[in-house]
Design goal:
The complex is a heterodimer of chains A (about 350) and B (about 675). Chain A has about 350 residues and is of the alpha+beta class. Chain A has eleven helices and nine strands. In chain B, the strands form eight sheets. Chain B has a seven-stranded mixed beta sheet with strand order 21-24-25-29-28-27-26, with helices on both faces. In chain B, strands 4, 6, 7, 15, 16 and 17 form a six-stranded mixed beta sheet that branches. The chains are: A alpha+beta (about 350), B alpha+beta (about 675).
Chain lengths: ~350, ~675
């Protein structure tokens, strides 16, 4: 609080000169004459001064108040006249010309961010088909027919005349692991984004189609501890906020051990509907050695980790979206927000 | 799966409170929830498929908890008090199918069927089962205790030779009927296995008991069944007859073979305790020949353990965990361990055991370390780069990006008759709205336009996505880049078409494809012909299809309730585009001499193509003509249109004089007059 009366007057005079709009003037009025202005507070505190001083300071304060009111009146008149007085008046408050610029889909934004982080870590981007064979989607990944593990992946089957090979819409991006390893020798690190499909009823958190990003890193040395490091780096970079990370046991036949990675957003300021609870972010694990056998790698030489991230899930948490179905609604009211 | 906390505590002494148990199980086993039934605590564990075989029981879970706490837990030994009467004199069992690995039976005489005691009923209810009578309850109870599904038959209701009863495990005959305990009738076939007497099926093996040999209040003598069925066979059968039970669920997950033998003894004792009776001497234990698998020995190298986990583990600690897991260590050296797998769980690879060690120690207790790998730039993915380049340009063109469904509806498929033969359909569509795979990005776009017209007058969208169709019976999956421009306002069709064409031309230019880089013609591509009332096809110079652009045909618009609006659409084949784009920009030196610009305006018949006019200008024998730029088109009523061009002249060797340019203009005038232009 400024208690020097002359300084208050000085500042008020300086500031009012720079004012160009009525809105600014209103703010000035509140600042210098409002109930919480330094001047008002000073007047209220007068009773604490000895009587003689009180008289003198009180009088000066009231003089200043009068001058400020005078300044206000004058300025108000000037501004009001200005607003219609001049033909060549240049109104800097007029909104700028609208430049039409559109928006990328939130899934594109999130996908690019995920892929971008892994690219910085040296991961190569791989893509693959949506229509898969039963072999790549299941058998090669140690999910045999009539095995209860298949229940975890409800599948859309394709109508086709070929009786030898049953075709389906890939239920996860993990078939990319096999497809890539069949044609490449380690060491490598890849990241493979793709669209996946599940035969299931839709609701706010389930869709018949969604996107995953598969990661796979194989070398002679890459370990569970390395996996933890890379995933932690990724999550910290992606979420930017303070998050807690935990690794939990899970089961996917193509990795051993199998893990689930959970995060918890711990940000007191955030209004996110996702804060303060554990959220499943990805399934992961160390590549099962049988997969290396299936692609004819040298025995007992290679090891590595794999993971699968849910893109919609990450986008929902990032943008605080409550309904997965919005992503495919193509509703411009939704899309124009990104 | 539900577990009674109090029951668990009676099996294993542990010093964890319910919250701590929930936490440790969630992290190291499977997600666990805690709730109360009355004042009794229940753990609900979402067991994962690989652990149902050994953990879906109170003893199994006790072993798991002990393991996680660093201790070894052995299942209590069981001893049965038998009479001198031999079971062989009363029962014969035959396995006549490949789907039953083991079938163990016991016989008890003179039991008294009645209500179960309260403690037993409470435990059953805690785990979600309904008490029936002491015999049935006992078999359910032992299932919850050991994990082995059990069944009890009324001895006297089964046919046999003389006093000797006969039980046969076989596949059902086609159309064989059975009435289950609930009184429901099922029609079976050869895929379903049954437990049978000489005459009828007594139970659907591994799934449900039958009415015929049901234990009722008058039952005196009983046969206990404890079997091991092939998981996949039970799963198939259960799906076939649409009947899932606690028993089938457990069998599906392949229980340990050794369990049947143990569980039946526990059951015999419990029944005797609850219902009295005399347990006949011995068990009938029929084992399929190759049921017992040879156990693989596994070599665990110390160095591999550390390399795999990325941390140096204490050898003693590892040995202790292996011991708690019931592994037998056959050989121990400086470098490796030779272990023989335990009975209750299957491990076939050293990595599986190492993973198990990590799980038991807890993944969160491991360090995270940066990998020591060779620094190498990843190979670039050109398709990915192209898609992102496209997106960043399109954003500037005021087109909103959408992600549509990969499906179209049955109704749409039928409407596009020509398309129907190319459409790929699903064997199991989830609804008629998602029936075929989309053969073009157009159909979903049109739905988007219709939906968004409720709130917007203009809808401008693009999508980069896959389309799917049959071509000569082969499945084609292609990534396309498509766009749609739609406005409610009428008479905008030409504007929209030329804007779309302009977007494509600008994009192509950005990718280094000037006019000479591709060609356009009337649409011939079968897949697109019927979509447009006016449109063109783009080809590369080797006649490969690049894409189409055009105005949507009226009938189609009507189908989507968009009759009143104008719609331009394009679809470009990404892969073919990528093959011809020029990746590197090559700088052209700035011109040394100034350009001379002349304008020319003329009237010409409306049906003379711009392309032909440009051809006439460029092939007039003109020199120094650097560029031709159409800047105005005016169509008045009648047959003619007025066109205006900028003509840009420049020489590489000198500054052109006005006279020199006049001469060249003369050639152009002449050439244009020849095609009927009236110079203004």
């Amino acid at each position: 609080m400024i208690t020097d009366l002359e300084q208050i007057l000085n500042l008020a005079q300086q500031e009012i000169q720079k004012i160009n709009t009525l809105r600014e003037l209103e703010n000035w009025k509140i600042k210098y004459l409002g109930r919480k202005s330094d001047l008002s507070l000073f007047l209220k505190s007068l009773k604490n001064f000895p009587l003689a001083e009180r008289k003198e300071k009180g009088r000066r304060a009231n003089q200043i108040r009068e001058s400020l009111l005078e300044l206000l009146k004058k300025k108000e008149r000037v501004l009001k006249e200005n607003s219609f007085a001049f033909d060549d008046f240049f109104d800097i408050t007029q909104p700028g010309k609208k430049i039409p610029l559109s928006h990328l889909h939130p899934l594109t934004l999130v996908l690019n961010e995920i892929v971008g982080i892994f690219e910085k870590l040296g991961f190569q981007i791989i893509e693959g088909p949506d229509i898969e064979t039963e072999y790549y989607n299941f058998d090669a990944l140690r999910i045999p027919k009539d095995h209860p593990a298949r229940d975890m992946w409800d599948t859309f089957w394709i109508q086709s005349d070929n009786p030898k090979e049953r075709l389906l819409l890939k239920t996860h991006t993990s078939p990319f692991q096999i497809r890539f390893m069949e044609t490449h020798q380690p060491p490598f690190r890849i990241i493979a984004p793709g669209r996946c499909f599940r035969y299931e009823a839709t609701d706010v958190s389930h869709e018949i189609q969604f996107h995953q990003v598969e990661g796979l890193m194989v070398s002679e040395e890459v370990s569970l501890a390395n996996f933890k490091f890379i995933i932690e780096e990724f999550l910290k970079t992606f979420f930017k906020k303070k998050i807690e990370i935990r690794f939990r046991n899970s089961y996917f036949p193509f990795v051993s051990p199998s893990l689930e990675v959970d995060i918890k957003i711990q940000d007191k300021k955030t209004k996110s509907i996702y804060k303060d609870k554990w959220l499943e972010i990805m399934g992961a694990g160390m590549v099962h050695p049988e997969l290396f056998e299936k692609v004819n790698y040298e025995k007992n030489r290679w090891q590595g980790f794999a993971f699968g991230l849910g893109v919609e899930r990450l986008a929902m948490i990032k943008y605080n979206i409550n309904d997965i179905r919005l992503f495919f609604s193509s509703d411009l009211r939704f899309l124009k927000q990104f | 799966m539900k577990f009674s906390f109090e029951w668990l505590k009676s099996v294993l002494k542990f010093d964890l409170n319910p919250k701590e148990i929930q936490e440790i199980l969630t992290l190291n086993l499977a997600e666990t929830f805690l709730f109360k039934r009355g004042n009794r605590l229940i753990l609900d564990i979402e067991l994962l498929p690989d652990r149902i075989g050994d953990c879906s029981s109170h003893l199994g879970l006790a072993k798991e908890i002990a393991l996680l706490k660093g201790n070894k837990f052995s299942w209590p030994k069981v001893k049965v008090k038998e009479t001198k009467v031999k079971i062989e004199d009363y029962l014969n069992v035959k396995i006549k199918t490949n789907n039953c690995d083991r079938y163990v039976s016991r016989v008890i005489f003179n039991v008294k069927v009645k209500e179960s005691p309260k403690w037993l009923k409470e435990r059953l209810k805690d785990c979600g089962l309904r008490p029936i009578n002491n015999i049935v309850d006992a078999s359910n109870y032992v299932m919850l205790l050991t994990g082995q599904p059990l069944h009890v038959f009324d001895f006297d209701k089964i046919e046999g030779k003389n006093k000797k009863k006969e039980i046969i495990i076989r596949q059902a005959e086609n159309n064989e009927k059975i009435t289950t305990l609930e009184g429901k009738d099922y029609l079976l076939n050869e895929e379903v296995m049954v437990i049978s007497s000489l005459k009828d099926a007594l139970a659907i093996a591994g799934i449900k008991g039958g009415k015929k040999a049901e234990v009722d209040k008058n039952t005196k003598n009983i046969i206990l069944e404890s079997a091991h069925f092939e998981g996949s066979a039970i799963r198939k059968a259960s799906r076939l007859i649409s009947l899932k039970t606690d028993a089938s669920y457990r069998f599906e997950h392949n229980l340990p073979l050794e369990l049947s033998d143990y569980a039946i003894d526990v059951l015999a004792n419990l029944i005797q305790e609850l219902a009295g009776g005399e347990i006949l001497k011995g068990k009938i234990d029929v084992l399929k020949k190759d049921a017992k698998k040879e156990k693989t020995l596994i070599i665990l190298e110390w160095q591999k353990i550390n390399r795999f986990l990325g941390v140096n583990l204490n050898k003693k600690e590892v040995l202790k965990i292996l011991e708690n897991l019931d592994f037998q260590i056959l050989k121990k050296t400086e470098n490796y361990l030779l272990v023989s797998p335990n009975t209750f769980r299957e491990f076939n690879y050293p990595e599986e055991i190492i993973g198990e060690i990590a799980r038991i120690k807890g993944f969160n207790n491991f360090p995270s370390c940066p990998p020591e790998e060779i620094l190498k730039l990843p190979e670039e993915n050109e398709n990915w780069i192209l898609k992102n380049d496209l997106r960043s340009w399109l954003k500037g063109f005021n087109l909103e990006e959408v992600y549509n469904y990969s499906f179209i509806s049955k109704e749409e498929g039928i409407f596009f008759k020509e398309e129907t033969k190319r459409l790929i359909s699903l064997k199991n569509p989830i609804s008629e709205n998602f029936y075929y795979l989309r053969p073009t990005l157009l159909f979903n776009f049109l739905k988007n336009v219709r939906d968004n017209f409720r709130f917007f007058d203009k809808v401008r969208l693009f999508e980069i996505g896959k389309i799917y169709y049959f071509e000569k019976k082969l499945i084609v999956e292609k990534e396309m880049f498509a766009g749609i421009l739609a406005e409610k306002e009428k008479n905008k069709s030409k504007d929209l078409f030329y804007e779309g064409k302009g977007i494509i031309e600008t994009l192509f230019e950005k990718f280094g494809l000037l006019k000479e880089g591709f060609q356009i013609k009337e649409i011939e591509e079968e897949r697109y012909k019927s979509f447009f009332k006016k449109g063109l096809e783009i080809l590369d110079n080797e006649n490969n299809f690049l894409g189409v652009i055009g105005l949507i045909e009226n009938e189609i618009k009507q189908f989507y309730d968009l009759k009143e609006s104008e719609i331009a659409f394009w679809e470009i084949d990404l892969e073919n585009l990528r093959k011809i784009i020029i990746k590197e920009i090559e700088f052209q030196p700035l011109p040394l001499y100034p350009a001379v610009i002349r304008d020319i305006s003329f009237f010409i018949k409306k049906n003379v193509l711009i392309d032909n006019i440009l051809f006439a200008i460029q092939n007039s024998g003109v020199k120094y003509l650097e560029d031709v730029d159409l800047f105005d088109i005016y169509e008045k009523e009648g047959e003619e249109k007025s066109l205006s061009f900028h003509l840009i002249f420049r020489s590489k060797e000198k500054t052109l004089t006005s006279e020199e340019v006049d001469q060249e203009m003369e050639k152009i005038y002449n050439s244009l007059k020849n095609i009927g232009a009236k110079i203004r």
